[in-house]
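Lab notebook, design round three. We kept the backbone fixed and only want residue identities now. Task for the bench partner: fill in a sequence for the structure below.
Input structure tokens:
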């Protein structure tokens, strides 16, 4: 009996390893559907009301994006400023498509809103300032934040500490990924995040209201946690509609630097080895491995809020859930997706 179980486990590991290799070999490509280079509305100063889509910015300056603001009449200015851009998104068939905003490189820190909705940030504003001038800005755009074929507004809050400031370089625009992974629940975007370690954080009823928001996927060093090594936790609450009791389900968590433990509604779902075992084994390549976890759909609570909690340990360099894809889908859809790629 024991040998049969071991043989089945080895077969399963081989299948999963092949799936991961296949997954990483496919890759994805994005095409630009809207060029946002050119004139944007601009004002120095800081006012959160400037993030609102109906704010009147007719009397603001106009400057070019991408280009440092020092080269456009604001020489020597360090501090806060805002950019705003109105645009009409083409009325594309957005079924089975995902959209992203590319902002290129921003010096030093930014926070981005679309139609008044926060879609992401990079770096950390004062008083806990942390620059991210060398981090490429790519933000996932949830479709519920957008109006296709109608007017939309991007608002970008920027803080510059010294030297060049603003949206300084890059191919700024909105990009579409066709035929992405058909997630039931796409987890790109904001997660709750806290440094330190407490196993109570895995519990679904734990109160994380005072935790910070962080973008996933993106290294935490690019989001105000520069040079932080050690334990941290991510939490994501999501409402499950429909029944999954008779389904096999895949949870994709992209790539994590360095080690992770994943809990769904308080239950441990993977990996096979826990963080302490990886540290003891001095495994140096775990950071480069795609996290693919296979679960019984019974673990998803239908028509209720569910909580995914990820414990991460970073031993040096960049840390966190730094690369996608990130989300949940049915196993049969996962397999059909990769068969369609052949």
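Proposed sequence:
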């Amino acid at each position: 009996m024991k040998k049969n179980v071991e043989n089945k486990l080895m077969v399963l590991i081989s299948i999963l390893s092949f799936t991961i290799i296949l997954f990483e070999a496919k890759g994805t490509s994005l095409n630009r559907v809207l060029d946002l280079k050119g004139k944007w509305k601009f004002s120095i100063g800081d006012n959160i009301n400037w993030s609102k889509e109906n704010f009147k910015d007719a009397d603001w300056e106009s400057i070019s994006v991408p280009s440092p603001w020092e080269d456009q009449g604001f020489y020597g200015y360090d501090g806060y400023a805002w950019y705003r851009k109105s645009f009409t998104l083409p009325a594309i068939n957005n079924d089975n498509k995902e959209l992203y905003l590319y902002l290129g490189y921003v010096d030093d820190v930014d926070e981005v809103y679309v139609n008044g909705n926060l879609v992401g940030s990079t770096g950390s504003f004062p008083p806990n300032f942390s620059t991210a001038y060398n981090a490429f800005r790519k933000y996932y755009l949830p479709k519920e934040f957008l109006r296709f074929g109608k007017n939309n507004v991007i608002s970008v809050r920027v803080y510059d500490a010294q030297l060049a400031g603003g949206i300084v370089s890059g191919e700024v625009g909105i990009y579409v990924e066709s035929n992405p992974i058909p997630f039931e629940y796409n987890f790109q975007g904001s997660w709750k995040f806290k440094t330190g370690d407490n196993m109570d954080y895995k519990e679904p009823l734990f109160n994380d209201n005072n935790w910070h928001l962080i973008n996933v996927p993106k290294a935490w060093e690019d989001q105000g946690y520069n040079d932080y090594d050690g334990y941290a936790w991510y939490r994501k609450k999501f409402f499950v509609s429909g029944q999954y009791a008779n389904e096999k389900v895949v949870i994709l968590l992209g790539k994590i630097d360095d080690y992770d433990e994943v809990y769904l509604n308080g239950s441990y779902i993977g990996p096979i080895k826990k963080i302490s075992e990886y540290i003891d084994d001095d495994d140096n390549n775990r950071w480069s491995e795609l996290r693919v976890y296979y679960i019984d759909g019974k673990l998803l609570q239908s028509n209720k809020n569910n909580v995914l909690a990820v414990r991460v340990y970073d031993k040096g360099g960049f840390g966190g859930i730094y690369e996608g894809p990130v989300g949940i889908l049915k196993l049969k859809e996962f397999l059909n997706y990769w068969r369609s790629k052949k």
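Keep this in mind before ordering anything: Residues 90 and 183 are 24 Å apart (CA to CA).
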